[in-house]
Amino acid sequence: MRKRVLARPKPIIEKHQEENGEIKNNGSLEKAHSAKKSPGFCKNLCKAFQIVILIVLIPPFLNYAALQKEQAELRPIKGELYDIGWEQKLFKMCQGKGPPTVVFDSPIGMNSDVWAHIWPAIAKNARVCIYDRAGLGFSDRPKENSTDSDGTEMKSNLQNKWSPFTVERMADDLYRLMSQSSQEPQPFLIVGAELGALVAQFYAQMFDNQVLGIVLINPLSEDLFEQDGGSWLHYWYSQLIPSFQSLQLSAALGITRLALILGLISHPMAKSGMPEDVENRQKFLLCHPRHLSSVVDEHHFMNISFSQLRTIRLLKSLPTNISVTVLSGNYYDEQMPSYLNKAWAKSEQNLINKHYPQANHIVINSSDRHMLIKNYDAIIEQINKIIRLYKSKLKSRKF
């Protein structure tokens, strides 16, 4: 009989090696398994990245395409673009018969649509012209002659004259628009609100032989930034301008258009009874980075504009034959802090007392800084009074 031979146990070292081998094998299996998973993970990551890129890029492209289409569709049919020199074009629309010609100049950062409630009623009695300042609405941004030499009077070297987006340049642009690019019947009655009132004053100082009167609605005064310890100066440059810069960025990214579509925001003239075409134009401009860039620039150079007006007042005074009418409301703007309203009211009163003590100052009841779209009937009445007075004087001279 054979002896039963018992199997010898494996050495402890070999056992450990086998166990280690199993661990190594298990590790290689896990690596292989993860290798199979990694292509799927990378694919999902790429898809997510593509979606993010599309979300970031599509709104700006869609907004740009929509702006190109709307640019042609929304421009008023009766308005035209006038070359005021060096191929810079300003939008202007006129109706009615003159003289006189009533010229409307808009508040800061706003296009000529703001007068939509007012100018049709005035056009029944006089020639009426509304226009967009450089860069706003449908007007080109300011252009400069890059050459050192001057051209003709119509094309003088603007680079050597006025800085863009200042009141000097705005008044010069208006002169070229009304008296050189087109020949509107004089004299002019210039109706300006806020910054437009600043332009009206500067224009009357420079071209007094063309002007019968100016109507200043909630006028900006050159000492506004000095009132109450510079409260408006701080608000203007630390809050107001950054808010418009944010709007410009939002428009460039296409976010503004999406917000308008979703009803998250509204344009400045919403719920004011404006015609549908005006409503659509305001939405268009709120989505237009170029327009909003000019809004920022008009605000940015305001201190320079104030300085320019101070200088021209020192050089010459306003002729006494030019009538001055100031329209202001008796209500504060509820959207602004009371200390800013008080500083504005002080600067406006200083403007009248110091420079226009003989002005016809009319306070319109239940009105604030938004009277152009809320209390326009009172404005129409005052402008028509001036027109009737001019026409009656004209008739008396003939007899």
UniProtKB/TrEMBL annotation:
Instruction: Kindly provide the name given to this protein in its UniProt entry.
Output: acylglycerol lipase
Q: Which InterPro entries match?
A: AB_hydrolase_1, AB_hydrolase_fold, AB_hydrolase_sf
In the record, what terms sit under GO molecular function? monoacylglycerol lipase activity
Where does it live in the cell? Late endosome membrane; Lysosome membrane; Mitochondrion membrane
Q: Keywords in UniProt for this one?
A: Membrane, Transmembrane, Transmembrane helix
Q: Which residues cross the membrane?
A: 45-67
Organism of origin is: Pinctada imbricata (Atlantic pearl-oyster)
Domain AB hydrolase-1 span(s) in chain numbering:
108-240
What is the E.C. number? 3.1.1.23
Any GO CC annotation of this UniProt entry:
late endosome membrane
Its BP terms in the Gene Ontology are: acylglycerol catabolic process
Note the topology in the membrane: Single-pass type II membrane protein
Q: What is this protein for, i.e. what is its function?
A: Lipase that preferentially hydrolysis medium-chain saturated monoacylglycerols including 2-arachidonoylglycerol. Through 2-arachidonoylglycerol degradation may regulate endocannabinoid signaling pathways. Also has a lysophosphatidyl lipase activity with a preference for lysophosphatidylglycerol among other lysophospholipids. Also able to degrade bis(monoacylglycero)phosphate (BMP) and constitutes the major enzyme for BMP catabolism.
Under catalytic activity, the entry for this protein gives: Hydrolyzes glycerol monoesters of long-chain fatty acids; 1-dodecanoylglycerol + H2O = dodecanoate + glycerol + H(+)
Could you say which enzyme class this protein belongs to? hydrolase
Which superkingdom? Eukaryota
